[in-house]
Amino acid sequence: MSLRVGEVIAVHGTKIILRIDEQSSKETLFHAGEKYKGVSIREYLSIQRGFRDIICMVEGEYLDETRMDTQDGKPTYVRKVEAKPIGFFDRTGFTQGIKYLPMIQDPAFLLSEERIRSIFDRKVQNEFKIGSMLKEEIVIGLPWKRLFNSHIGIFGNTGSGKSNTLAKLYTVLFDQKLQLIAGKSRFIILDFNGEYGGEQLAPAAHKMVYQLSTLTNPDVDDVSSRFPLALSEFWDLETLSLLFQATLNTQRPFLNRVIVGKQKYGAIPASLAAYAKSKFRQSFCAGEVKPATLDLMRTVARRMNNQAVQNLLGDVTWYRNGRFNYRGAFIDPNGDAYRAHIEQTVDTLNIQGLDEFDQLVLRVNLQLMSDLNAGYVQFEHIQPLLKRVESSLASLRRVLVITDVPQIEKLLTVISLRRCNNEVKKVLPLLFAKHYYNVHKSTVATPPDRTVHIIVDEAHNILSEQSKRESESWKDYRLEQFEEIIKEGRKFGMFVTIASQRPADISPTIVSQLHNFFIHRLVNDRDLFLIDNTISTLDSMSRSLIPGLSQGCCVVTGTAFDLPMVIQVDRLPSNKQPASEDVDLEKLWSEPAPEGPAALD
To answer: Where is the Helicase HerA central domain (predicted)?
Structure first.
C-alpha cells in the first residue's frame, strides 16, 4: 500500500506539475510498516495512470503565489513541484524511458525504499555493491557483467575520491569473482604514482608487481625490477619507432633497414662483428669519404670495448680531398693502405659481452655508415634518432630485459612507474599497451574466449592532447596507438579503464569511446564542458551536482545503467586503500623531529 501525496495539475510536454499535500514535506515518513522519503529535489514519485505507475523524478519545487484563506482566517499556500518522467512500472516490472505521460488529477504516491531499489538494481540481484545512493541511502548493486564488458572512465579533481572508487571497483570484483575470472581474464594497471604495489586489489598469490626504476641499477636476479620483452618484440619496427620516437618519413624507414639487416644476417655467429669489419673497410675505402663516418666508427669501437681500435681511430683525420689519413698515409679506394695500416687492428672487433641494447646501438651506427657511403640519407636527418637511441639506453636497460623466457602471468599485473623519469613514463605505457594488445589480438579466438583489461591511473600523463613538450608528429602517433586500442579492442575482448583528474586534457576521441562513467567532483569549466558534450546518458540534474559533490561521492552513468545515479562509494580498509592519502599535517607536525643524519638543520 502506497502513501498518496498529491495529484497532477498540469502537463507541459515532459514537464509535469503536481500539487503536493502539506504533510509530504517531512524528511522521512513511515506508513504501513514501510519507510518513505518526503518530497524533495531528486526524490522519486509514482503517478498512477490506469494499471501502470509512471515514475518521475522531482526537479524543482515552489509555492503558488495564489493565497487561499481558510475558515479560521489563516492564509495557506499551495506547494507545487516540477517532475520529469523517467520510466514506468507494469506487470513485467520497471521499464526505463518515456512512453506514457500522466493526465490532470492523476494521483501521486511516494515510493518505498524497496521499490526504489528495484528501479536501479533489478537485473543484478543486489550482489555487486560498492556504495549506497547518496540521497536515499539505499545500498545498490551494480550490473558488473555489463560494466566490465566496456570501457570505463573515472574522473574527478584531486582529493575527490576517484582513486578509492577505482580501487573499490576492482577490489570487490576480485573478492567476489576471483575463482570465476582466474585463467580467463588478465588485468594490467599502469601505475604512475606507485599506489597499488602493496596489498591493494588482489591477493599476493594472484598479483605480479613490477617496480620499475630509472634511478638505480636493477638487481639482475629480481624478476620484478625489469619488464620482460621477447626478442622478436624488441626487434620490431613499431617497438623501436615507439621507444625512440622515430619520424615517419625518414627515421622509420632507416630503422626498418636496421631490422631487415638483423633478420637477414643475425642468425650467423659473430655476424655483427663481421658486419662491422666490412663497414669499417667500406668507410675507409669509399670513393668519397664522409667525415661523419669517423665519429660513427669511434662510437662502434667504444661500444665494443675495443681500446686498440679506439687508439687507431684517434690517429685518423679527414682531409678535404675526401680521404682519411692515418699517421701521414692516405687511405686510397684500392685498399692497399687499408690492408697495410688498418685491417689488422680492425679484425680484433668482437661482440662478446654485448646485450641487445648495445647491439642495437652498433647496428644503428653501422647502418648509418652504410647509408652515408651509399648516399641514401642525409646525416642531419638521422642524427637526432641516433642521439635518442644512445641517450635512452641507460634508462631502458634499467627497466626492460630482452629475453625469450616466458613472462610470469597472473590475474593482476601492476607496473609501477613512480621511480621512472619523465621520458620513460611517456614511452613505456605505450609499449606495454601495444605489448598486451598485439599478443592478445593475435591469439584470441572469435568470439573472444579471454579478456584483457588495461587500467590507466592518472591517464592524463599519456593521453593528453595538450602537451607542448613534444612534437606534433609524436603526439599524433602516441594518441593514435591508444585510440586504436580503445576503438578496436572491444571486438577482441580488450577493455580500458582510465582515471584522470583532468578529463579535458585527454583526447576527445578517447573520452567519446568510453561507455560507463564514475564522475567525482569537477570544477573546471573545460572539464564540465567536455562532460556535457560527451556523455549522452547524463541528465541536467545530475550534471548540476558535479561541482559540489563531496569526497567519495560520484555520479554513475553510462550504457550499463538505465538511469544516472549519485553514489557515495564506501571507503576501503586502510590496508586496501591506494597509497594516495593526503598528508596529515596535524599528526606530522606534532611528532618529534628525527635525530641524527635525518634531522633538519
So the answer is: 128-326
pLDDT of residue 66: 62
**CB atoms near residue 534 (< 10 Å):** 16
Nearest alpha-carbon partner for 502 in 227, 156, 197 = 156
According to DSSP, the residues that pair with 269 across neighbouring strands are none
Contacts of 275 (CB under 8 A, 6+ apart): 261, 265, 366
Contacts from 143-150 at CB under 8 Å and sequence distance 24+? 143/560, 143/561, 144/173, 144/177, 146/559, 146/560, 147/516, 147/560, 148/173, 148/453, 148/495, 149/495, 150/490, 150/495, 150/514, 150/515, 150/516, 150/558, 150/559, 150/560
In sequence order, what are the beta bridge partners of 188? Answer: 413, 454
Cell 615507439 maps to which residue? Answer: 242
Can you tell me whether residue 70 is helix, strand or coil? Answer: coil
Query: Which is nearest to 227 in space by CA: 442, 393, 429, 443?
Result: 429
Q: How far apart are CA 179 and CA 182, in angstroms?
A: 6
Distance CA 565, CA 547 (A): 16
Cβ proximity of 294 and 381 under 8 Å: no
Q: What is the CB neighbour count within 10 angstroms for residue 420? A: 21
Q: Measure the CA–CA gap between 391 and 384, rounded to whole angstroms.
A: 11
Segments of the chain assigned to CATH 3.40.50.300: 144-204+427-580
Fold of 144-204+427-580: Rossmann fold (3.40.50)
Cβ contacts of 337 within 8 Å, gap of 6 or more: 326, 329, 330, 331
Lookup result for grid cell 545512493 = 133
Amino acid at residue number 106:
D
- Position 152 scores a pLDDT of 92
- Mean pLDDT, rounded, of the chain: 83
Strands (E), 70-123: 75-90, 93-96, 107-110
> Taking Cα atoms as reference points, which of 579, 578, 556 lies closest to residue 128?
556
pTM confidence score:
0.81
- What angle do the packed helices 251-265 and 356-374 form, to 10 degrees? 110
Spans in the chain with pLDDT lower than 70: 1, 23-24, 65-76, 121-126, 266-270, 465-475, 580-582, 594-601
The candidate with the shortest Cα–Cα distance to 185, out of 217, 230, 145, 141, is: 145
CA 136, CA 128: separation in Å to the nearest integer? Answer: 18
In angstroms, the CA 479 to CA 280 distance is 41
DSSP result, 54-69: EEEEEEEEEEEEEEEE
Three-state SS at 320: coil
